[in-house]
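2 proteins. here.
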Amino acid sequence: MNRRSLGRPLWALLFACLVLGFAAPALAGPGMPDPRQMSGMPRPDPQIPAGEVTVRVLLGGFDEPALGAMVELELRSADGRTVELRTVEAGNQGRAHFRELKAFEGGQAIARVTLEGELIRSQQIDLLGSAGTAVMLVKGAAKSGRQEISLPGIVFGYEKNAPGELMVGAFDLGTSKGLGKLPLHLDITTADGQTETRTVETGERGDARFDGLDQLPPGATLQVRAQLDPEGEPYRSMTFPVNPTQGMAVVLARGRMAAAGGSPHDGGGQASGEPQAPRRAKIPPPRVAPELPLGTVQLLVVDREDQPLANQSVTIVKKDFTGTEQRFVLETD
């Protein structure tokens, strides 16, 4: 795209992180900004090695790091066929560092942590090949715009199921439709290495159920797989144990995951209330970023698929109290 393209309507979106010297007192007040306003918003950071994600967890203000909190990172590869759930303990200043994510470059992640009984999730994190990503998770933050559904392939608790039941949804994210009449396979491995596979077929809306899992021997692990595309490797869920106290659910989906605005727990417009394809969230508003140098404005320009757009002309206009304007023009890398 050339510079003229910015003059006409675009599906491009701007995610701005502002720290302006003349605006800081009005935005932040006499002290530091409220970190709860920034909770869950991922920020590409060139100072973090490409592919890495740093999650800072706070119990309130910046002086209340959640030391020792167990931070989880949901990971999904670019092709959607590989998923993983990693856990790192928060250390210095409440930071948890997730490294060696090269296999997931171009894919997505969601950070989550439970602080004093409150589950806090980030918005979707795009794993860039050009820079790492920083995100904060803060107790007591508003849930507006927050990701409330796990990535495809990540198992989550589903209260509408009884303990020992697993609900599985199969979707095409490109069409936001379920994949009906599709065989779903549940691979079961017991602690002594014995294996078993159970197969069910999805209904018209792409949903299916496995039950009786609470009768499996202790230590058994499960994994769901399905051939969502005619060719290529099957899509697989993470490997997970049976939750003896709560029902479970997982979504397998082909296509790229858009940021979610709905949750499978609220029915999301489907009459049955079953897990469904995620919906895109709103782009977060400008925010104060105390980690940037004073007087700096950092922006990320992305297209309708949330992919970064290079070679885009961006103009920042600074106005002082007299109305004098100063313009800064740069091009995205």
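next one coming up
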Amino acid sequence: MRETSFIRQNKDKWQEFEKHLASDKKDPDKLSNLFVQITDDLSYSRTFYPNRSVRVYLNNIAQKVFQSIYRNRTSKRRRFAEFWKDELPATIWESRKELLLSFVLFWGSFFIGVFSCMQNPEFPRMILGDAYVDMTLE
């Protein structure tokens, strides 16, 4: 295939890719699919047009995508801070109903135990056993 035919055949796809790359809202699936197509075209151009401008053009586009993907990688220290600042609160918020239920059950059981001990001082010995209560008192 001649270089002009190759360019004419893929020109629209490359322009769409550049437009998608420049937009604020990037669809990861579409970006991934277009990136695969661009790298395929880059491989083809490296094979058949090694010293031509189309190879340089495609290489620049692929390079922009690579840099946009890996530019935002966080360091381990930043990742640790991000966990405590963002991820943990989000997980707790998502689990708030379960946490509330466990909180209510824990404190309900605690107050039942306190009330039972106030009514009957021998209640811990009945529930836990004499050996454990004596060991705890020591």
